[in-house]
Amino acid sequence: MIRILFVCHGNICRSTMCQSVFAHMVRERGLEDRFFIDSAATSTEEIGNPPHHGTVRKLREMGIPLIPHRARQITWSDYGKFDYIIGMDTWNIRNLNRMLKGDPEGKVYKLLAFGDSGRDIADPWYTGNFDVTYDDIVEGCEALLAHILEKGRR
């Protein structure tokens, strides 16, 4: 089983959107038994809160089931439980490296690093644009899934 943890600042916008999008992608391919997918925050600001209404609206608009989730902060014990810890932007990666003792096993990645750009996924909490965030997340999740499946073929 491949265990993936998506991480953003508050765990109510981008990481929860990733969690639902990636789960939908693997379910559509009949691979759900090969993956465990979760999400977390680097901060404590939103702990216990459900996904942001903008994330819920965008997933509903796209016909993607929302995975029920309450925001939680990543812990050091998560490091041992997950194969991939995926941040959304450069700031998330910096925080993850600090919180996870420098990422000694090389598990921390930026989502769009699996695609062609490596750019940040903008935080819709600040931009208000869940459409652009969704497009970037789909791009990143598709590239991540392709990477994992290709790696499994080797």
CATH class division: Alpha Beta
Helix percent band: 40-55%
- Report the uncertain regions: none
Instruction: Let me know the number of strands.
Output: 4
Count of individual domains: 1
What is the fourth-level CATH superfamily? Response regulator
Strand content: 5-15%
Radius of gyration (Å): 14 Å
Main sheet summary: 4 strands, parallel
Write the topology of this structure:
Blueprint lengths: L1 E7 L5 H15 L6 E7 L11 H9 L14 H6 L2 E4 L2 H10 L8 E3 L13 H4 L2 H24 L1
Parallel strand pairs: 1-2, 1-3, 3-4
Record keyword descriptors for this entry.
154 residues; alpha/beta; Rossmann fold; 4-stranded parallel β-sheet; 6 helices; 4 strands; globular
Tell me what the structure shows:
- The mean pLDDT is 96.
- A four-stranded parallel sheet has the order 2-1-3-4.
- It has one domain (2-153): Rossmann fold (3-Layer(aba) Sandwich), CATH 3.40.50.2300.
- With 154 residues, it is an alpha/beta fold.
- It is built from six helices and four strands.
- Helix 1 links the parallel strand 1 and strand 2.
- The radius of gyration is 14 Å and the shape is globular.
